[in-house]
Amino acid sequence: MENNKPGRRRSYVWLVLSLIAGICFGAVGMLLGTGRKPPKEFREVVDVNSDGIPERFVTLKYGIVERIDHDRNSDRMIDLVEDYSDGEVAMVRGDDNFDGKMDSWWKYKDGYVELGEFDTDWNGVPDYFVYSFLGVNQLGAWRPNNGSEILRVEIFEGGVKRKEYRSSNSDGSFDDVLEFDSFGQVGKTIRLEKSLKLEDLIDKHVVKTKKYVVK
After folding, report:
1. Are 23 and 31 in contact (CB under 8 A)?
2. Which runs of consecutive H residues, i.e. helices, occur in the chain?
3. What is the bridge-based pairing of β-strands 88-94 and 80-85?
4. Cα separation of 57 and 101, whole Å?
5. Where in the chain are the domains?
6. Which of 21, 114, 126, 127 has its C-alpha lying 20 to 30 A from 7's C-alpha?
7. Residue 127 near residue 144 (C-beta atoms within 8 A)
8. Is the pTM of this model over 0.85?
9. 22-69 confidence digits (pLDDT tens)
């Protein structure tokens, strides 16, 4: 009878360890989402360059990224904001001169920039609008302070500026076009037989759907 006691003790120890392991694995499973939803909102703070000042702030809702704020120059002020929709970036706003005011805005579609707006005189209102497809610039329109007057329209081919439409009388229509070579040098100026509006140029030069992409 005495010889059986060590074996009984070992069986009892293994039983206790098995119970503890089962409880621990069960708790971990609950925390990983088997029976509990992720927190509604959570904010992660990241010190990117290990200088003791956090530069990135990630906001998640139900485990999905909703917004990322950046302090790119470590002055404790947010100068770049990424807004997300369904886990994909939808809008990016930037303060590129670090004066505390946003001066660039990028709207995204399917993971690529579709429209960029830029405040070139630092008054908080965009003046230059760039239409893109799959992240490649196609058309840029100079419209000071988001007003009705359009000074000129630039056309890009493969991301390189090749044409610039100008108006001779500031009536919102364009009747002159300057052509550029691959190095950005002005070639010739052509007078159009028929004036064009911004909408005409967008319809002509801006690709809007992926069906036009040649693979």
Report:
1. no
2. 5-29, 198-205
3. antiparallel
4. 19
5. 37-102, 103-207
6. 21
7. yes
8. no
9. 444 444 454 445 455 667 788 899 998 888 889 999 999 988 999 999
Pairing of strands 174-180, 186-196: antiparallel
Helix (H, G, I), strand (E, B) or coil at 9: helix
* Pairing between β-strand 88-94 and β-strand 174-180 as defined by DSSP bridges: unpaired
Q: Where are the beta strands (DSSP E) in 25-111?
A: 41-46, 56-61, 64-70, 80-85, 88-94, 104-109
| Phi, psi of 47, rounded to the nearest 5 degrees | -95, 95
For residue 137, the surrounding DSSP H or E stretch is strand 136-142
Calpha distance 13→90 (Å, rounded):
56
Pairing of strands 136-142, 41-46: unpaired
Q: Would you state the structure tokens that stand for residue 72, as one six-digit string?
A: 């790119």
